[in-house]
């Protein structure tokens, strides 16, 4: 990615900070999730969007807060998130992941990490890997994109918990076998 990619990532980082600060100031419990949460933990930087999670019960308050700050909030047909646009950068605010409601309890069990000079809650690496592996399915099964993520955060993950959480997803099980065969994680 050349200068255009750098501009995209710079815009995403600015959007990340703007939304995080607004949610913090508005006292809406939230956490950084997805690719930028992995990035905050040493993984590769994404170039598509920023993801945050809020408890499902706080989703409307979060959307209203962000709209009240002058941000463009869009409610797409999907009923598990809303989108926030900061210039060209897209921020997804999810309140359900893999069909499960996000809860305040999960948000209470996060790490506080400085991301781009802003202290913010970031989902635990174990939770992130569980989400990423449970999202694998027949139409979205790119092990090549997921492998550098797993390598980057492998020492921060409770792989036993991830195995248990993803045991019903055959794609996740296959990915975990691949990680074992490559020596990224210890075999069971």
Q: Could you please describe the fold and organization of this structure?
A:
This protein is α+β, with helices and mostly antiparallel strands. The protein has two domains: 1-123, 2-Layer Sandwich (Beta Polymerase, domain 2); 124-188, no CATH class. Helix content is 46%, strand content 20%. It has helices spanning 3-25, 34-40, 59-68, 104-108, 125-134, 143-153, 159-166, 170-181, and strands at 30-33, 50-54, 72-74, 81-86, 89-94, 96-97, 100-101, 111-115, 118-122. The strands form three sheets. Strands 1-2-5-4-3 form a five-stranded mixed beta sheet. It is globular, with a radius of gyration of 16 Å.
* Main sheet: strand order: 1-2-5-4-3
Major sheet size, sense and barrel closure: 5 strands, mixed
| Helical/strand content category | alpha+beta
Radius of gyration: 16 Å
Strands, count: 9
Provide a count of the helices. 8
Total domain count: 2
Binned, the helix content reads 40-55%
Question: In summary, what is this structure?
Answer:
The protein is 46% helix and 20% strand. It is of the alpha+beta class.
């Amino acid at each position: 990615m050349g200068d255009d990619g750098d501009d995209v990532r710079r815009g995403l980082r600015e959007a990340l900070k703007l939304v995080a600060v607004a949610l913090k100031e508005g006292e809406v419990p939230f956490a950084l999730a997805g690719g930028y949460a992995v990035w905050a933990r040493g993984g590769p930087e994404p170039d598509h969007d920023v993801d945050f999670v809020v408890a499902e019960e706080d989703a409307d308050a979060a959307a209203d807060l962000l709209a009240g700050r002058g941000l463009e909030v869009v409610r797409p047909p999907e009923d598990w998130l809303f989108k926030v646009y900061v210039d060209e950068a897209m921020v997804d605010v999810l309140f359900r992941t893999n069909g499960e409601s996000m809860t305040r309890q999960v948000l209470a069990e996060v790490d506080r990490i400085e991301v781009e000079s802003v202290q913010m809650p970031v989902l635990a690496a174990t939770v992130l890997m569980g989400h990423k592996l449970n999202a694998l399915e027949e139409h979205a099964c790119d092990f090549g994109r997921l492998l550098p993520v797993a390598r980057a955060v492998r020492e921060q993950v409770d792989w036993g918990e991830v195995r248990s959480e993803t045991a019903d997803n055959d794609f996740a099980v296959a990915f975990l076998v691949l990680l074992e065969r490559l020596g990224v994680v210890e075999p069971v």
